[in-house]
Each structure stands twice: as structure tokens, then as C-alpha cells.
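testing teh design pipeline on a random one, pls ignore if ur not involved
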């Protein structure tokens, strides 16, 4: 590391050097093959066998120049993680020598044994074949370049013998196609100039914890479950509000700098780094990118954080709630759309024409979130996120949309049909500026977010979906966002087309006919009337909102078992298949995989809690109890008042008895429904946490939260 060039100019010249991007492709492919491949990437042109062979050859030469000895199809099965199986380029020439080979077929398709990946019954073991297929829209890259661990990674989708999706990426790509198609219709409807392909953008902010390895390895609960199963918040935690955006301590900064340097080489545009609210909690945010690439890059960000942490003597915890009593970690999923004009359509426009399109897509979001709230909720339902959603620092499980005061007022005007007025000043009625019957309200540019408690907040030119869990792949939630937006826009465009079917195009100076304006106003009003209950600008963390949301009839699906059934409701199944995102079988299999993952996680954590209670906590508690018994006896012998000592003894003896009881109850529930396990773990934890508070620190079997929190910044 020390021999490397750390100058800023080096940053520019090393950015994406380990990526087979357009630059590298230009250098390693013939100009014809290069041009053909660009066509494939941009417009989905079919890859011929000759083309594949030529690309494979160029890619191999490039990768070998970076020291790669192996290649792997890099894919994202339904485990939520990435998968890889390395093959070396090495092929015997049968004359006693070897060749380095990589064929077109090896590039395009792989056949890993799929029998051990979750498939939710889509694939019986006797037809275990699964296929990985190259996704040329996410460029290949080399990890660990110039070392003997250098590997060429080829981003892929993963599917079964009959083309059924076995991964997170296939439905994402399909949902992107569905959204693109509807956005194209919107572009046509509003006569937007430009022949670009519309697409979604994503910028996921990644939160994480760093714990000193020496303490981490003494916490088997964290090692095994990714989160602490026991432990009390120390007297000093996050109440001083001194960690958020606080000075970054040298050891942390060294880690962050190393992470950034590695990510930049991989072409991941890591941009922002800072301390988060809880002690030992941090965040990394990249610059947003085209959604598919950003999803892959987020996986690389998570890997890089963990690998780099290990080298710096840290464990990086990506779990949604590693510690009770302080903030958990999320992944703020910043999502937007770019139209055929290459512009962000969630940027409020300055012309009436732009405003109309802006209000149209904005209304699409309101309609989508209200109509499909349970499905959106289901897309972030995991065992880990259950500890976070609805806790006092994270958005509630109720899906609502935050627009901000100014947009709220505009939505209300459209709804009430009251005169449309300029929103640049204050919204009071005497401030009304009529801007003509045909025009929609003017929208000020700075409609930025001031609300941090909404799960789905408009932040000026994008929506921030804040309920995504920190350890989750972004693929699932973004698949759902694309899909529900496609469905909402589809209905709205269809309704516009129906209303305009036999109107002659008599355009006015806004570029549209009067009939167009009338239809638009009617459609927007209709949708807003029907769906504005989902718009909420108040404090999403408050108890009042829970009540208000219930009054509005908004679903509040607090836990994963409550949320997942939305995946297989008849409407959802129809929605998935209508837009070609998942077939009925694929939806059911996914539901099964996620349900199984949830119950497996809960049962594993329950088993872990029981083991640790028995073999770590109980011995310490018994030792403490007998020490107190001796103290009471000794005091009596010495003729002292044993009262206070006896009280302490009784308190601990009671807890020990309850501990036995709670362990038994948990044990018998381990084969039962996850709810029982969760409830019984909570009872066990309360007893153990009480014991931790009373027992001598040096006899307690685990490092306490205080050590875990402050060791990472205070120890060299
Ligand atoms: P914050 O939300 O903390 O105020 P920013 O608004 O600057 O911070 O951005 C947060 C994230 O949103 C960044 O990852 C950024 O790249 C991303 N982002 C910004 N614009 C867009 C967009 N048009 N589409 C998707 N993500 C975006
Ligand atoms: Mg943000």
C-alpha cells in the first residue's frame, strides 16, 4: 500500500482501472466488435457466436494483464448475497503444455450446480441445472488485481432450465424494461423530444457499524447472527449527539480512505463518508447511477467495507439492528427516473409544459405507493429489518409519501379544483396568481425535503425510500418500485389516451390542445382524490401518526410474517405476470424462499441465544449467586445486619430461577412458529440484560456495549 501513489491526480487516472469499461473495451476489442457490443449494451442487440468469441478473447487479455488467473460468473441468488465459482483460464494443450483459454460460450453462459441455492421449489434436485447468463449492461471487473488472487468477475443473471428466475437480478432487469416501456409512453404523450431510452437511477446510502475485532470475536452472538442478542445500552450512548457528522477519528479515516480507494478502482463512485448517529456507526454514499449498475455497485460496496474492515482490525456490521437502544442501519434508496430527453423527470420544471409532466409522474408515485403499499412493504420485510422499522429512529412500517409543504398545497389545489395559482410565494389565497385556465401551477425549484421520518420522501428531484434494510440487496426493493410505477403510469397514460381518442390536435402556445389540458386535469384530479390519503407530511415516528394512518385505512404491517403474504395476493400475482416481471410460479417460489429465510433466521438466532444463555451466562450467574450467598452467610456470622446483602442475593437468585424457566420455554418453542421464538427470546434477553447490570464486570462472559462502541475509535 505504501508504495502506491496517493496523489489526487492518481485518483483520476486510477478510477475504474479494474473495470472492463468502454475505455478498456476500446483498447482490447477490434473497432467492429467494440461497436457491436456498444449496440448490445445500449439497445439490446443480439450477440452472435463470433462476437462472443471475440469479446471473450479481448476480455481475457485485459484481465490477464491485470494478473487474473481465473474468471467467475458473478451472480445474486436468492440468498441476498453474491455467488461466485472460479474457473482458471488454464487449459492443457495435450502436448505437455498449457494454454490460457476463455471461449465465447464460457463468457455468455455458465452452468453452476444449482441444487443448493434457494429456489422455493422451482427446481427439484433431479433437474438441478441452473444457468448463469452474462449481463453485458453491467461491466466485468477484476478483483484483487496484480495479486495471486486476481479474478475476472462477470456480472450475470441466474435462471433455471426453463428460464425461470432464480436470482434477484432477473426480475430487476425485467422491471426496468416494464418501466422503460411506460416512460416511453409518457414521453410520447407529452411529446418530449429525444430518442434516448428512459431509465431509473439509484443512489443507495449505506450505513454500517465498525467494531474492534478483538471485542467482536468475544461476542459469539454478533459473530453468528450479525447482531447482539444481549446487552445493555451504556450510560453514554448517542444522547450527546456528538457522533453524527462528528470529527472522523484517525483510525476510522484510514479505513474509509482505503475503502474509497478500492471502490474507485472498481469504478464505484464513492462520494460521501461521515459518522452516523450511533457511536461506532458510519455511512458511505455513492453518486447515483443507472439502477442496474448501482445495484451491483452496492453489493461491491458491502463487500469492500467488510474486507477492508478485516484488514484494519475491525468487523463491519451491516445488520439492520446490531445493538438495542441505539440507531439501527438502513439503506436510503434514492430513486429517480430519466426520460427520453436525458433529463430527470422528478426535477420540477420551469415551463408549464415541464410542470405538467412533473405533476403527472409525481401523481404516478402517489398512486403507486397507495395502491401497492403492502407490496412495497413486503419488499423490505426481513428478520433483521423487523428490529428496525418502527423503532424510534427508523420509518414506521406504514408506507406513506412525503412531498413537502409546497407540493402538498399544489396537490390539494388539484384535488379541490380551486383556482390554480403560482406557488413561488406563500400559498395563502390572497397570494393567488391566476396563470390561465389551461396551465398547471408553477412549481418553485427548491422543493427540498425537510422531513426525515417518512419512508418515502420526495427530496427535490428524487424519491428516497428509507425503509430498505442495510444488509439487503437493493435489487428486490427497486424491482418493486419500478413495477408499481410502471403499473400506475400505464393506467394513467391509458386513461389520457382514452380521453383524447377522438380529439383533433388543436395546440395552444403550451404545445398542447385545450382537450389535452382538460384531460390532464381530470386524470390528475381523479388520481389525487383517490390516493392522497397516502400523502403525509407530519412526524412519521409519532404515535399520533399510527392512529391517523389507521383512520385513513393505510396498512400497518409491522412484522415480516404480516408483510410477506402481500407478495402472493391475487392482485400482486397478476401485477407481476402482467408486466412480465415474475410468473405466478416464480412469485410463489420467491414467497417461499423469503418466508423460509425469515423462519430460519429466527430459529437460528433462538438456538444461538439458548446456547449462549446456557454455556456463558448461566455459569457466570451461578457464580455470582453463590458469591452473594457466601457474603450473606459471612455477614450473619460476623453479627452484621444481612438485610441489604440478602436483598441483593434474592434479586439475583430470582433472576437465576427465571433464567432457567426462560431457557426451557425458549427451547420448547424452537420448533414452533417464529412469533413464539421471537417473544421467548425477548423474555430471555430481559433477564440476561438485568443480570449483566448487576454482575461484576470482570466476571461477565461478554464485552459490554460500551467496549464495543468506543473501542473502534479509541483504541489504536
Ligand atoms: P441527503 O439525502 O443525505 O441529503 P443527497 O441528497 O446529496 O444527500 O444524496 C443522497 C444520495 O442520493 C446520493 O447517493 C446521491 O447520489 C443520490 N441521488 C441524487 N440525485 C439522484 C437521482 N437523480 N437519482 C438517484 N439518486 C440520486
Ligand atoms: Mg439521504
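output:
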Amino acid at each position: 500500500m505504501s508504495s502506491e501513489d496517493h496523489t489526487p491526480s492518481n485518483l483520476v487516472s486510477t478510477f475504474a482501472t479494474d473495470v472492463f469499461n468502454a475505455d478498456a473495451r476500446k483498447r482490447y476489442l477490434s473497432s467492429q466488435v467494440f461497436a457491436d457490443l456498444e449496440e448490445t449494451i445500449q439497445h439490446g442487440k443480439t450477440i452472435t457466436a463470433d462476437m462472443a468469441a471475440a469479446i471473450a478473447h479481448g476480455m481475457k487479455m485485459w484481465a490477464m494483464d491485470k494478473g487474473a488467473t481465473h474468471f467467475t460468473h458473478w451472480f445474486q441468488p436468492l440468498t441476498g448475497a453474491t455467488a461466485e465459482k472460479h474457473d482458471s483460464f488454464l487449459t492443457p494443450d495435450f502436448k505437455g503444455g498449457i494454454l490460457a483459454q476463455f471461449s465465447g460460450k464460457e463468457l455468455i453462459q455458465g452452468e453452476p450446480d444449482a441444487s443448493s441455492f434457494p429456489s422455493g421449489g422451482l427446481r427439484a434436485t433431479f433437474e438441478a441445472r441452473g444457468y448463469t447468463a452474462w449481463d453485458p449492461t453491467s461491466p466485468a471487473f477484476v478483483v484483487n488485481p496484480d495479486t495471486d488472487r486476481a479474478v475476472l468477475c462477470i456480472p450475470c443473471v441466474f435462471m433455471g432450465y426453463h428460464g425461470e428466475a432464480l436470482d434477484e437480478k432477473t426480475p430487476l432487469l425485467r422491471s426496468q424494461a416494464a418501466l422503460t416501456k411506460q416512460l416511453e409512453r409518457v414521453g410520447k404523450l407529452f411529446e418530449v423530444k429525444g430518442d434516448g431510452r428512459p431509465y431509473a437511477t439509484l443512489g443507495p446510502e449505506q450505513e454500517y457499524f465498525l467494531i474492534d475485532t478483538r471485542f467482536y470475536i468475544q461476542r459469539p452472538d454478533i459473530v453468528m447472527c450479525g447482531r447482539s442478542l444481549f446487552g445493555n445500552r451504556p450510560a453514554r450512548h448517542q444522547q450527546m449527539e456528538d457522533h453524527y457528522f462528528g470529527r472522523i477519528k484517525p483510525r476510522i479515516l484510514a479505513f474509509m480512505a482505503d475503502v474509497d480507494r478500492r471502490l474507485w478502482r472498481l469504478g464505484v463512485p464513492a462520494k460521501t463518508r461521515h459518522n452516523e448517529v450511533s457511536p461506532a456507526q458510519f455511512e458511505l454514499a455513492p453518486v447515483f447511477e443507472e439502477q442496474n449498475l448501482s445495484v451491483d455497485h452496492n453489493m461491491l460496496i458491502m463487500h469492500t467495507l467488510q474486507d477492508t474492515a478485516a484488514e484494519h482490525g475491525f468487523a463491519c456490521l451491516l445488520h439492520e439492528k446490531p445493538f438495542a437502544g441505539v440507531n439501527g442501519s438502513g439503506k436510503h434508496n434514492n430513486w429517480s427516473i430519466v426520460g427520453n430527453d436525458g433529463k430527470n423527470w422528478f426535477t420540477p420544471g420551469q415551463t408549464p409544459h415541464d410542470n405538467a409532466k412533473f405533476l403527472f409522474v409525481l401523481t404516478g408515485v402517489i398512486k403507486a405507493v397507495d395502491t401497492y403499499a403492502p407490496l412495497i412493504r413486503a419488499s423490505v420485510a426481513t428478520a433483521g429489518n423487523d428490529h428496525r422499522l418502527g423503532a424510534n429512529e427508523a420509518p414506521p412500517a406504514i408506507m406513506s409519501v412525503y412531498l413537502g409543504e409546497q407540493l402538498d398545497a399544489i396537490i390539494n389545489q388539484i384535488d379541490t379544483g380551486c383556482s390554480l395559482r403560482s406557488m413561488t410565494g406563500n400559498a395563502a389565497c390572497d397570494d393567488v396568481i391566476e396563470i390561465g385556465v389551461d396551465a398547471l401551477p408553477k412549481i418553485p425549484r427548491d422543493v427540498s425535503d425537510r422531513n426525515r421520518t417518512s419512508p418515502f420522501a420526495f427530496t427535490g428531484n428524487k424519491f428516497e425510500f428509507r425503509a430498505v434494510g442495510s444488509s439487503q440487496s437493493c435489487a428486490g426493493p427497486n424491482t418493486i418500485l419500478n413495477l408499481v410505477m410502471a403499473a400506475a403510469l400505464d393506467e394513467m397514460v391509458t386513461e389520457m389516451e382514452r380521453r383524447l381518442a377522438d380529439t383533433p390536435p388543436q395546440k395552444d402556445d403550451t404545445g398542447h390542445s385545450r382537450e389535452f389540458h382538460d384531460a390532464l386535469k381530470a386524470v390528475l384530479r381523479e388520481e389525487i382524490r383517490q390516493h392522497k390519503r397516502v400523502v403525509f407530511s407530519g412526524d412519521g415516528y409519532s404515535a399520533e401518526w399510527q392512529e391517523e394512518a389507521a383512520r385513513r385505512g393505510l396498512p400497518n404491517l409491522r412484522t415480516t410474517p404480516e408483510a410477506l403474504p402481500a407478495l402472493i395476493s391475487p392482485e400482486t400475482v397478476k401485477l407481476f405476470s402482467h408486466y412480465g416481471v415474475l410468473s405466478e410460479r416464480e412469485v410463489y417460489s420467491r414467497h417461499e424462499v423469503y418466508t423460509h429465510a425469515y423462519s430460519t433466521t429466527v430459529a437460528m438466532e433462538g438456538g444461538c441465544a439458548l446456547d449462549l444463555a446456557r454455556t456463558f451466562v448461566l455459569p457466570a450467574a451461578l457464580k455470582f449467586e453463590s458469591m452473594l450467598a457466601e457474603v450473606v452467610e459471612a455477614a450473619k456470622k460476623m453479627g452484621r445486619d444481612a438485610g441489604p446483602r440478602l436483598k441483593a442475593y434474592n434479586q439475583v437468585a430470582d433472576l437465576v430461577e427465571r433464567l432457567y424457566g426462560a431457557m426451557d420455554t425458549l427451547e420448547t418453542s424452537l420448533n414452533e412458529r417464529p412469533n413464539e421464538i421471537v417473544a421467548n427470546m425477548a423474555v430471555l434477553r430481559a433477564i440476561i440484560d438485568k443480570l449483566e447490570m448487576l454482575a461484576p464486570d470482570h466476571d461477565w462472559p461478554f464485552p459490554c456495549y460500551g467496549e464495543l462502541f468506543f473501542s473502534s475509535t479509541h483504541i489504536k
